[in-house]
Amino acid sequence: MQSSLKFGTSGLRGLAEELNGEEARRYTSAFLSYLATLGETVSELYLARDFRDSSAGILRDCAAAASALGIEAVDCGAVPTPALALHAMAAGAPSIMVTGSHIPEDRNGLKFYLKSGEISKQDEAGILGELQPSEAGNYDAPIRDEEAEARARYLSRYEMLLRPGALAGLRIGVFEHSTVARDILGDLLRACGAETVALGRADRFVAVDTEAFTDAVFQPMGEWLQDYRLAAIVSADGDGDRPLLMDDKGRFVRGDVLGLLAAEFLGADTVVTPVTSNTAIEATGYFPQTVRTRVGSPYVIEGMIEAIAAGAVTTVGFEANGGTLLGNAIELNGVQIDPLMTRDACLPLLATLGLAQSKQKRLSDLVDSLPLRTALSGRLADVPFEASARLLGELRDPSYAAKYFADRGKIVRTADIDGLQFWLHTDLLIHIRPSGNAPELRCYVEAVNAPDAEQALEWALNAAKRALAA
Fold it and tell me: How confident is the model at residue 3 (pLDDT cuts 50, 70, 90)?
């Protein structure tokens, strides 16, 4: 039977029952062996996890594989992925986060970090090249506990991001569910002067997709906003690298909008973001340079590294899901904040709230001041990658594409970065791409208003469905 374990847009993912045990040990051993091929001497491997039931056991499997190679395992506990990366990088050590992020609990995954940061697509290939059959080892290997230290280091990074008392007078809800960022978010907001209200804490893991605003898990948020007289509600996904924000009007703020506002707050001269992020980024005129990439943090990081090498002074990256990355050291409030090129939920949430306060605006007014177009996305499930590739190949033929879009408008511009984007003379943007994590075809649209965007998305999904069936 073919394994479900595969590298996607954010690490290795698959069924938890397949990752647990031998496979977790194999991939950990392969990662450490790959580091040896790079000439790196590894004496410690830092580990952390999310709250899903399978994660603690998989973490122990990773520790066992390290121990079998004579490498000490360090357990950072249930902390956000960026907290693990920050703590391990400070120690000059590699790390692995055990998490499936927002996907269902029956699935899980591993996110790998070099001592210098998140792995690249080239590193993924290197790890796969080192996979070997599992060998017996000490599966009860000792693990050094550094959860308190990892948590304290991460809190210290952001406690001074805003000036003291910057959020005073705001009452902010923290939708805690089962994110590992739940306690940290509350601590940081209170450190900045806000009053917090803890909401919806879960005893068992809940799969929360911070982009799926219509999911039932978010239904209580509007009532919480009113009942507790909140200025905003914040949250994060399971491993704390993707943010969620509801404004004072009960509207969800898209992740790419959060990234845009965070970049403005941080004074970015260069923004790096995938092609799926809102075109308002360029329309604001806030940033001298905007670099568009393929979807996935490895591609954003690659773009950031290239921009920095070309002279960018303050480089901020983010994805459409809102995870924000800092490429250069910056100074705020007399405190230096070092680079951290991995997705982070706390940075854009604090930066956006701080920006609204500094401009003396409600959060909703801040968002409304942006030249935003309505952006929507949808997907067709159970579409093999080969079928998606065939459709994209046909759409690269200008004559085929013109007929395909004939009843929506004339094509005036195209882009072929990650899937295909089509700008139509009717002021629509339609983007079609295969998912990097699942057998799905994804469609994204942008329009000047919500009704146009809704109609365009419905058309795009139906058109793709017809073309795939032909």
Answer: confident
